[in-house]
Fold this sequence. Notes:
Elements: H1 2-100, H2 103-120, E1 125-130, H3 134-148, E2 153-158, E3 164-169, E4 176-179, H4 180-200
Parallel strand pairs: 1-2
Antiparallel strand pairs: 1-3, 3-4
Amino acid sequence: MQNKLQELTEKLYNEGLAKGKEEGERLLAEAQEQAQAIVSQARAEAAGLVAEAEKAAVALRAKAEADVRSASDQALQATRSDIEHLLTAGICTPGTDAALQDPAFLKEIILAVAQRFDATESADLSLILPEKLQAQLEPWVKGELSKALKHGVQASFSKKNTGGFSIGPKDGDWFVDLTDESFRNLIVSYLRPVTRKLLFGE
């Protein structure tokens, strides 16, 4: 009887042990599968992050290169513009300023422009002249210029005007600006294309 009990105990033990071992192996296999799945997913995510980082790096490099090219082009254009300005200003400013501050030269231009206005406008004229030339020009405006025109002319003198003049209808709201600055701009606009071609071959 004792033998049978021992056999039964051993059988139960062996069956339990076999079942436990089988369950352990199953759980271990499942754990290994889950671990492999986690590792695979982690690798895929890592590869995705690396790909995104590489793509972002390429885009950032392309943008940086484009920004550098743009800044370089702008700097080059600004330098060219400065050279043109210095050259054209050096050529036209001294002569223009001297001419437009010369009372005799101004009288010739004012007379020609005023007569053209007088022929086309049925109104008195208004002149704005440099204040520093008032002593030389005011008597001429009141005398010779007034006699040469069919309509009246009135001159005012401004500190803001350093050379040249502005002219327009006395009661009008517009003037033709023939000051030293406007003459310089006009001359520079003609010189600039020639200068650009000589300097840069454009």
